[in-house]
């Protein structure tokens, strides 16, 4: 293999730049030409492709976002879009592709694989909801960003003896809420994977107030309920001086943590190795501290992302009473 390409797609995640950098640097180290595709699959279909040099990826490792830009591009679900994409890759003499992104991006990678085009997926989404890996690129940075906010919100909640509902990202998975909630000492963590009872939550806050507790922090994953609605519902069970905060896209930005940069660097280099070995249709993962490769089809269709392998939800209930 003499020429490969890399793209970032879907919601951006801190550490995507570090992954692109690793693909380019490892490729060049192995004597391969690496091309960057702008704007994900949209740029692929449009032929927005350029060669990347070692210098092009300098000063990128510490930057959030993605310098290759990203896009959500549902049009790539059509066979027509996929064939156009492959045509563009062939036009540039590119023999293999690295796709960095979340589940939507993986669908594109799988489609290319089904057309026989060697494609490797690198999991990058702050939601951390890709099957076959304990951690996706961007998750560690996002939970640290959320944690910073929880710590600040706690200050003001305590000053006013308030209940603060904090909405975090996570459409289908509660990973961000769970990890940041545990780290931030939240009293309640509400995730799509677990049922919750508003009356019980209200009782727990009451018990806390009775022992002179000054604040209650409730972290809610956006996939369960919007924070304003949650706060309004909770207020029906008592006057807890409830306020809410929606953290939103601040969670997707910022300089990646060391953990995300290392994960991204290893995944990037491994993707190049796999393509060089003539492999495709694989997704990279890190499971119990070991680097693994999973079948792309399995990752998307047959396996399910496990949100709580460490049983953190139970732990939060045990150590965050009232
Ligand atoms: O990247 C995943 C995610 O951050 C979700 O948690 C969130 O619901 C969604 O992206 C927001 O997407 P967009 O930025 O396209 O509105």
TrEMBL record:
Cofactor: Mg(2+)
Record GO terms (molecular function): 6-phosphofructokinase activity
The protein's enzyme class: transferase
Main subcellular location: cytoplasm
Activity regulation, free text: Allosterically activated by ADP and other diphosphonucleosides, and allosterically inhibited by phosphoenolpyruvate.
Active site: 127 (proton acceptor)
InterPro entries: ATP_PFK, ATP_PFK_prok-type, PFKA_ATP_prok, Phosphofructokinase_CS, Phosphofructokinase_dom, PKF_sf
Keywords for this protein: Allosteric enzyme, ATP-binding, Cytoplasm, Glycolysis, Kinase, Magnesium, Metal-binding, Nucleotide-binding, Transferase
EC assignment: 2.7.1.11
UniProt binding sites for ATP: 11, 72-73, 102-105
The protein's assembly and partners: Homotetramer.
Protein name listed in UniProt: ATP-dependent 6-phosphofructokinase
Gene: pfkA
């Amino acid at each position: 293999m003499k020429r490969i390409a890399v793209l970032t797609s879907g919601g951006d995640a801190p550490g995507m730049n570090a992954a692109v950098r690793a693909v380019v640097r490892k490729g060049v180290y192995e004597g391969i030409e690496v091309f960057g595709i702008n704007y994900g699959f949209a740029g692929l279909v449009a032929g927005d492709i350029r060669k990347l040099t070692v210098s092009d990826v300098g000063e990128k490792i510490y930057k959030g976002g993605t310098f290759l830009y990203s896009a959500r591009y549902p049009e790539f679900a059509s066979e027509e879009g996929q064939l156009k994409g492959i045509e563009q890759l062939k036009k540039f003499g590119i023999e293999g592709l690295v796709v960095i992104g979340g589940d939507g991006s993986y669908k594109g990678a799988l489609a290319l694989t089904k057309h026989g085009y060697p494609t490797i997926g690198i999991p990058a989404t702050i939601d951390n909801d890709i099957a076959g890996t304990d951690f996706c690129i961007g998750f560690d940075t996002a939970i640290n960003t959320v944690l910073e906010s929880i710590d600040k919100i706690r200050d003001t909640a305590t000053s006013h003896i308030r209940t603060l509902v904090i909405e975090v990202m996570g459409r289908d998975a509660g990973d961000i809420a769970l990890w940041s909630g545990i780290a931030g000492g939240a009293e309640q963590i509400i995730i799509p994977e677990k049922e919750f009872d508003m009356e019980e939550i209200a009782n727990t806050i009451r018990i806390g107030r009775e022992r002179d507790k000054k604040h209650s922090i409730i972290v809610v994953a956006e996939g369960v309920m919007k924070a304003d609605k949650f706060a309004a519902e909770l207020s029906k069970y008592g006057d807890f001086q409830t306020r809410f905060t929606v953290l939103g896209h601040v969670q997707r930005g910022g300089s990646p943590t060391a953990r995300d940069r290392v994960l991204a660097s290893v995944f990037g280099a491994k993707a190049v190795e796999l393509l060089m070995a003539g492999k495709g249709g694989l997704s990279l993962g890190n499971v119990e501290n070991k680097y693994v490769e999973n079948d792309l089809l399995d990752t998307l269709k047959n396996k399910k992302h496990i949100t709580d392998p460490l049983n953190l939800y139970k732990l939060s209930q045990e150590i965050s009473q009232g």
